[in-house]
Amino acid sequence: MEIKNLRDATSISGGKASGLALLNKMGVPVPSGFVINNTLDITFNDEDIKLIKEYLNSLDSNKKLAVRSSACAEDGTKKSFAGIFETKLNVDNNIERVLEAIKEVNMSATTDVVKAYSNGEKQIMNIVIQEMVEPKIAGVLFTEALDINGDDVVLFECVEGLADKLVSGASEPAQVIIKIKNNQIDTSSMRVVGKLMDLSFLNNIIPFVNKIKRISDKPLDIEWCIDQNGNPYFVQARPITSTVFINKTIENSGIVASRGYVEGETYVIDENKSDEDIKKAIDNFKEGAILVAGVTETLYMPAIKKAKGIITEEGSALSHAAIVSREMGIPCIAGYKNAIKLFPTGTKIVLDALNGKIIANGVEDSVKNTKGFEYGELYCFDNSCKVDFDTFSVVFELTYGGLMVHMNSEDATPQNMAILERYARKVFNDTPEPHFDDKYLWYFEIERFKKLPFYNEMNHEMHQIIAKKDTNELETFYNKLLDLLQNLMQYKLKSASAREKIIIEEIGAAVNLILDAMLPMGYALRQCYFDAMPLLEKYNMSFNDLFINKDVPGDAEELIKIKNFLNSVSMNRNEVYEKICSIGATSPEYFELRDENIANLLGYENIDSFYESLSDDDLSNIELIMIPYFCKKKSEGLVYTKHQKL
Q: Domain end: 227, 247, 267, which one?
């Protein structure tokens, strides 16, 4: 058996002991103690016990002891084993109690949890024994972290009493965020979030943290405490295994998106599952069940049509689930966090979207209806930009609700998310809210569609109609584009070339995007929201009230106009997708088969290579069909000019 003073510990004594030795060498206060090496297979003999007693006698006999693990794999750069091994606190300074505590810590190295975490590797256990500190406050600190706005900061998390209450989650911490300036803590920039407590003694520890930052060549995760007399101590140090990001405080509240009352069993469709599992869940959806999902998408419609109620984890009054449920007249609560875990398939619940309640297993939870407007879910693309990283690409969207990032879920590895978040905080001075949705794919489609004849004109006219909120012009716009598609399809069937057929199909997909998504679930909703807000405040109403048949005061003419326009938007959208499909201008499988069709018909590798090959000659006949729909005479102030060069 080998015992060393903590000042002399090396990596052989494990991560915790060597971390404490490092702190000792830095000249910061560390509670006195020692480490016993390789204890897992030791049967302590008389000589071993005598030696342990000698080390115990060197400590303050009036103080309790902490008996802690220091496995060789613990507190490493790849895995921290945080909270995996046992720690015994307030152990009496006598050999019997200490040996008993050592045995318990040793046993924690052989549990199934440890085996799973370490992939079955046998642990080499060492035991740290230290004098206990009776703390006034304690916690953890990270010598390097990244604030929401991209500032480099030191992060303290503090609780009253022992730090184990923080680690276990039993006590709400105070979070103290302080900027770093010239590799030192700038106390003038201190920000406190969370529980209020006396943090005056924190100033006693800051000089030592500055010292650690000067000396250490790597960021550290440190446990610390301050005793009743204000004396600071450092009780653990380990490398930070991944970038620490300061997160926004987000309130989860939910919202009644469509009114109604139903009782039934839940059926979960989880978009995080594989495509095969999602399709199977949709196919097997039970008639009359209550759909529970993270979000809903168009492909969920076969299940939604069977559902008698909907609960989603994401979304607001403007989400796909909210709009569809209002159209179908079924109750819906959107933005209800952790719904999939709370209401697994088969849970009997009451969905009371008249009074904003969900009752499950006899437990009632009221929806607060304070959920804000979610800009990221709108099909708006005017404030979006693509950013390419080494191995993946994302689309950032700047909204009034903050910075959103749309990306492929397969790219959302911990490493990529850390790269992405660091970039966003440094460049946009904000932390991004990730969205794994269709908007990522639609962004690239729109960049292609911009090269099609009159795509920009369609968008311009859409925005003009939205600005005026003219329901007659809105209906005319829908009918005009449907009539245009009808004429294009006739040309496609009679005399179009193979290249022109592909272009017409792309125009059909583009018109579908505008009429089925961008207008009804994007720009119209956003404009109406901004125009309605001052009026809603005046009449003590919410934007959601415009969707759930709540009466609008008779003297609120502008608000009535907005509500009528939104109703018209919803009515016109209701069947547009089916109409476009019936014309033959698009189909549910269009995007899945597109690249294959282009390769078979024209020999191009993919849709991008086809677009790159387009010329004015390819578009001329199609433009002749489209001109009457978009160009007026000179006397009416608008003339068609070829400004969309490829």
A: 247
Q: Whole-angstrom Cα distance, residue 329 to residue 262?
A: 12
Quick one: tokens of 576?
């547009």
Q: pLDDT tens, 461-499?
A: 999 999 999 999 999 999 999 999 999 999 999 999 999
Contact present, 469 and 562 (Cβ < 8 Å) = yes
Distance between CA atoms of residues 490 and 506, nearest Å: 15
Query: Rounded to an integer, what distance in angstroms lies between the CA atom of residue 243 and that of residue 11?
Result: 24
Residues 62 and 157 in one domain: no
Dihedrals phi, psi of 273, to nearest 5 degrees: -80, 175
Q: Is residue 594 part of a domain?
A: yes
Reported as a pLDDT band with limits 50, 70 and 90, residue 401 is confident
For the record, the structure tokens of 552 come out as: 């609008």
Gyration radius of the chain's alpha carbons: 32
Q: In this structure, what token pair is assigned to residue 136?
A: 């006034």
Nearest to 350 by CA among 333, 334, 338, 335: 333
Query: Is 373 in contact with 543 (CB distance < 8 Å)?
Result: yes
Examine the pLDDT at 31 and tell me if it is beyond 80: yes
Give dist(CA 29, CA 230) in Å, integer: 13
CA distance 392 to 409: 11
Would you say residue 644 lies in a domain? no
Q: Are 639 and 632 in contact (CB under 8 A)?
A: yes
CA neighbours closer than 13 Å in the CB half-sphere of residue 544: 23
Note the pLDDT of residue 641. Answer: 45
Pair 435, 580 in one domain: no
Q: Which regions of 415-475 does DSSP assign to beta strands (E)? A: 433-435
Same domain, 303 and 409: no
Highest mean pLDDT among 81-85, 110-114, 409-413, 586-590: 586-590
Does residue 645 fall inside a structural domain? no
pLDDT band, very low/low/confident/very high, at 145 (cuts 50, 70, 90): confident
Please give the order of strands across the beta sheet that includes 363-366.
Answer: 255-258, 332-334, 309-312, 290-293, 261-269, 348-352, 357-360, 363-366
- CA separation for the pair 415, 428 (Å, rounded): 20
**Total structural domains within the chain:** 5
Residue 82 has pLDDT above 60, yes or no: no
Boundary of a domain, candidates 444, 470, 490: 444
Instruction: Pick the closest to residue 466 from 522, 402, 410, 385 (CA basis).
Output: 522
What angle in degrees, to the nearest 10, is found between the helix axes of 616-630 and 455-468?
Answer: 20
**pLDDT tens across 156-176, in order?**
888 888 766 555 444 567 788
User: Is 81 part of any domain?
Assistant: yes
Tell me how many degrees the CA angle 627-632-635 measures, rounded to the nearest 5.
150
Instruction: Let me know: does 24 contact 30? Beta carbons within 8 Å.
Output: yes
Q: Give the pair of three-digit tokens for residue 81.
A: 């084993």
Indicate whether 607 and 478 sit together in one domain.
yes
Taking the chain, what is the end-to-end CA distance rounded to the nearest angstrom?
79
